[in-house]
Amino acid sequence: MTTVAAHGLSVTLPDGWEAIIYCRPPTVAGSTHPVLHAATFGLPVQRGDFGGGAVELMGPADAMVVLLEYHPDSVSTALFARSGLPTGLSPDLFSPACLQRGIPGQAGVQQFFNQSGRAFCLYAVLGSYDLRALVVPSLNAALSGIQIEEAAA
Length: 153
What we know:
Layout: E1 2-6, E2 9-13, E3 18-23, E4 34-39, E5 63-70, E6 107-115, E7 118-126, H1 132-144, E8 146-148
Antiparallel strand pairs: 1-2, 2-8, 3-4, 4-5, 5-7, 6-7
């Protein structure tokens, strides 16, 4: 097992997974927030925050997890009302309609939550909707390895 940690996030990965945690350079507005990408395939250097550029490389048995932090002001909003990282996703939650970018055969799920005073979007993609019952247990194992530290003061 490999552990990757940065920016108050860490993930201990099951065998066969890799992860990267990063922050983009600050924008004109001056804020940037951590993004965690974990996948069962090699992550390309160039990819969007929600996995654009990576999900196109997925095979049918692959999975990708995106954990994207939002501004601290979001914690108290209704969208992020759910408390705690979802770690036991059901295969039934995944749908081709939930993809950020529709790719034939793939399926995704998106859930918003707060934890440790921080607001996040969890976005997960499966390489094959038809294989979701076989792939989701590995994805849940990756999710269970994620740790979120308290928000910096």
